[in-house]
Automatic annotation (TrEMBL):
Protein name: Anti-sigma-V factor rsiV
Keyword Transmembrane: yes
Regions crossing the membrane: 37-58
Originating organism: Kurthia zopfii
InterPro entries on file: DUF3298 (IPR021729), PdaC/RsiV-like_sf (IPR037126)
Keyword set, alphabetical order: Membrane, Transmembrane, Transmembrane helix
GN (gene name): rsiV_1
Residue ranges occupied by any DUF3298 domain in the UniProt entry: 185-271
C-alpha cells in the first residue's frame, strides 16, 4: 500500500465512517462477491435492505480524496441483495457513484429508491405468484471509464410468466461531478432530427441486406407498414452512452423500435454526422 493510500486509511479510521476502507477496496476488485447477502425471509431482506441503503454513506472527504487516486473506480456497488429458492430469485445490485456534488448525491439517492422499488415489486409478485417462477436481476455495466467521462448502464431483467429487459444509461463527468445529458451535448434541438434520420437510414439498410434477420418498425412502403407504429424520431432525452471511442451511442429498449426478438437495439452515431451541432466538449470526438 503506497503512502497516499496509507494516509487516506489513517484519516478514514479517525473519521469513524460507516464502511471499512479495506472492504471498499475489496468491493472495487470483487464487487459482486464482497457485497452479497443471503436471506430466507422476504421480510428480513426488505428490512435489512432499507437499513443498509440508508446507512451506506461514504465520508465526503474520503470520497473526494479517493476519486483523485489513479486506479480507484469512480463507481462502486452500494449493496447486492440476493434471494434464491426453487421458484423465486432476486439479484439486485444498487450502484453508488463516488462524489459529493448535489447532482451526484441526488443521482445516488435515485438509484437507492429504484433499488427499493424493484425489490418491493419482486416481493409483491412472489406473493401473488407463490407457486410460479418469479425473478428479478438488476446490475450495472461500465461502458466507458476515463478521467473526464464515466458511462455505465443499469440493466433489469424481470421474469414473471414472460421475460422483459430494460437498460438505462448514465453518463457523468467525474472531474466536474456533473451528469451529462443528451441535450447538454448540443447547441440546440436540431440533433433530434439529424440523429433520427441517420438511425432510420441505418434501419432500412440493415433490413435490405440479403438473408437478414433484422426487423425494425420503420416505414418501407410495404403493406405490412400498417401493422405497427413506425419509428419517426428519437426522444429529446433518448437513452444513450458514450463509448470508448468517444462516439455517441443511441439505445432503444426491447419493443421500442422493433419486435421483441430484436431485444435492446443500439446505434453508434459517427461524429461527422453530428459534429456541426455539438457544443465544444471533450466527450464526443
Amino acid at each position: 500500500m503506497n503512502k497516499q493510500l496509507k494516509d487516506l486509511k489513517s484519516n478514514y479510521e479517525e473519521q469513524n465512517t460507516p464502511i471499512e476502507l479495506e472492504q471498499m477496496i475489496a468491493g472495487f476488485k470483487k464487487r459482486r462477491s464482497a457485497r452479497r447477502f443471503y436471506y430466507n425471509s422476504i421480510i428480513s431482506i426488505v428490512a435489512l435492505m432499507l437499513m443498509f441503503l440508508t446507512s451506506l454513506n461514504i465520508s465526503p472527504v474520503l470520497a473526494a480524496n479517493m476519486a483523485k487516486i489513479p486506479g480507484f473506480e469512480p463507481i462502486v456497488s452500494a449493496l447486492t441483495i440476493t434471494k434464491d429458492d426453487s421458484l423465486h430469485k432476486a439479484d439486485i445490485t444498487v450502484p453508488k457513484v463516488i462524489g459529493t456534488s448535489k447532482e451526484i448525491v441526488a443521482l445516488n439517492a435515485k438509484f437507492e429508491k429504484e433499488g427499493k422499488e424493484l425489490y418491493k415489486q419482486f416481493a409483491l409478485d412472489a406473493k401473488v405468484v407463490h407457486d410460479g417462477h418469479v425473478g428479478i436481476e438488476s446490475d450495472y455495466i461500465v461502458k466507458t471509464e476515463k478521467t473526464n467521462l464515466l458511462s455505465f448502464g443499469q440493466y433489469t431483467v424481470n421474469t414473471v410468466a414472460s421475460s422483459s429487459t430494460t437498460m438505462k444509461y448514465t453518463s457523468i463527468d467525474p472531474q466536474k461531478q456533473m451528469i451529462i445529458t443528451l441535450p447538454s451535448l448540443f447547441k440546440d434541438k436540431a440533433y433530434v432530427n439529424r440523429i433520427s434520420l441517420y438511425i432510420e437510414e441505418q434501419m432500412k439498410k440493415e433490413m435490405a441486406k440479403e438473408h437478414t434477420d433484422k426487423t425494425y418498425w420503420v416505414k418501407t412502403g410495404k403493406p405490412e407498414d400498417d401493422l405497427f407504429e413506425a419509428f419517426t424520431k428519437i426522444k429529446k432525452n433518448q437513452n444513450f452512452y458514450i463509448n470508448k471511442k468517444n462516439h455517441l451511442v443511441i439505445s432503444f429498449d426491447k419493443y421500442e423500435v422493433g419486435p421483441g426478438a430484436m431485444g435492446i437495439v443500439e446505434f453508434e452515431i459517427p461524429t461527422k454526422v453530428i459534429n456541426d451541432l455539438l457544443l465544444p466538449n471533450k466527450y464526443i470526438k
